[in-house]
Amino acid sequence: xxxxxxxKTTLYLDTLTKPPGSLGKLEDIAIQLAGITNQEAPQVSPxxxxxxxxxxxxxxxxxxxxxxxxxxxMIRNFLDGGAAINVFARQIGAELQVVDVGAADEVExxxxxxxxxxxxxxxxxxxxxxxxxxxxxxxxxxxxxxEAMIARGIKCLILxxxxxxxxxxxxxxxxxxxxxxxxxxxxxxxxxxxxxxxHKRNVIEExxxxxNPDNSAPLDVLKKLGGYEIAAITGAILAxxxxxxxxxxxxxxxxxxxxxxxxxxxxxKDYLFAGHVSQEQGHQFALEDIGLEPLLELGxxxxxxxxxxxxxxxxxxxVRMRNxxxxxxxxxxxxx
Amino acid sequence: xxxxxxxKTTLYLDTLTKPPGSLGKLEDIAIQLAGITNQEAPQVSPxxxxxxxxxxxxxxxxxxxxxxxxxxxMIRNFLDGGAAINVFARQIGAELQVVDVGAADEVExxxxxxxxxxxxxxxxxxxxxxxxxxxxxxxxxxxxxxEAMIARGIKCLILxxxxxxxxxxxxxxxxxxxxxxxxxxxxxxxxxxxxxxxHKRNVIEExxxxxNPDNSAPLDVLKKLGGYEIAAITGAILAxxxxxxxxxxxxxxxxxxxxxxxxxxxxxKDYLFAGHVSQEQGHQFALEDIGLEPLLELGxxxxxxxxxxxxxxxxxxxVRMRNxxxxxxxxxxxxx
Lengths: 336, 336
Hints:
2 copies of one chain form a homodimer.
Chain A: H1 3-13, H2 24-37, E1 47-54, H3 70-80, H4 84-92, E2 95-102, E3 113-114, H5 132-151, E4 156-162, H6 166-177, H7 182-185, H8 194-211, H9 218-225, H10 228-242, E5 247-249, H11 252-264, E6 272-276, H12 282-290, E7 294-296, H13 306-324, H14 328-331
Parallel strand pairs in A: 1-2, 1-4, 2-3, 4-5, 5-6, 6-7
């Protein structure tokens, strides 16, 4: 990020017709965006949304509230414009692209971008979730998807995911990488009972023990416990940061992919905004691990990129504030 | 509010393609809006913003960071489109109207709605801020402004204010009506020093003692300690609630006017959304007094309606979610 643009913007904001610092976090966002983009008058519109979808072998263990078939059903719902993320994408004028990186079933639809690595990961209680090659291909699928969207002109990347069972993979990842206990990293997902949650915790604890990932090697953890959509999110974040495009993270699963990216490159976190903190209790630990503060706290637990899309207007407001407000001098207002 | 529409919407939201309750506060907002508007498919666009501006005799006591002339300078800035609230109004497609209910100086501009009661309130350390007639006229100015904007077709009313010295009036009001101490109700306003804050506290404490308002008579408190813009906000809220139009409150001053409205009619609070909680410490007490939870927490301390305008996209997202999402049945998605 550009320290020069950060300093310049910090000073410039105090010349605008408002008491210094009176726009709070919005001022922090404007400053961070100047640093990220290396521009004095940054833009975040148009935004683009990537929703990576994949299935998870771990669902065999009965860890999820919904059956696996829901992943492809929701892919169809995304393509038809009926899901929550479609609604919020339309509201903010965002292009929405759904990328199949590993759904268990096939969806024949021209609007779907297929970068399928395999029909779901393997059950990581029994074996590594992915091979080395699969993990690398999934990261690359994310990188390529982000690069293509950025090439089409988006100025802000919003990331989301869909995959029945993916809070289990994310909890496993976060417990290993963020140094919290499995108990702290496990939540209710899309709505399991206390009993199933206890079972989910036990499955993850046993799986982490058996897979024994090297927590100083983030890609090893990703390969053994992750998911294709999580790996794709890691790749998309790396690609956006590389070309100075800000990224808004959604919930727990998205943030687990961001932890991997941040471990691969410590500068990545400067390019990230945490859209919100979700009801999933591990999310707070995951955000703290990266060093991010959430913009919204709405008690969401949906995924798809919804919390990130809902936070986008804050970034838009921050750049408009920077770019459109009058200065004390220009407006003839007495500064104190 | 319509209990029937509230019940119906509560059930309907669980038929949409998302786990029940997974959109958190957005679902609460959608339900509340159905109740307020008595409509199954409520709308909040287009929104309208009223910024009431007035001056305060209490500034003679040296309680503010900025000089009084800034009130009319900022009125001109609003009219020219250079203030923060102008920027956020454009972002959300809101009509913005500035109403002079008591600026100390004259602003000759056709775009300004003049409903001036007097050239500022009197110094409430020395005498009542307003006469009975002035207080009533200011409430009526707010009512008429809201009614006119609603007649032009707005579906959501966003309230803001401008007035050098008005955190002092609001702190006095809140300390009497919300039952917190003067110390709890006093903050740094637009950026005074600790020393000036101590002085501001002493002035308010002495003024409350001398004016001795009847805290069971909200209009008596308003007359003795309030401001013309605060009274206008009270009137605007009453007018909007009466015709089932939702209101988004901004910061501390706006909320002090909402306390008066809530005391006059206990049902008013069902029509209110708290856009945010500000840095001004009395704001939290004021919100709790009415029983409101803020939508955003961005560390703002600007006023003008900025925090309310920034929260508007949440209400827009909530109604779009209700009105545009597919049901499980329609999308062919398996419900658990």
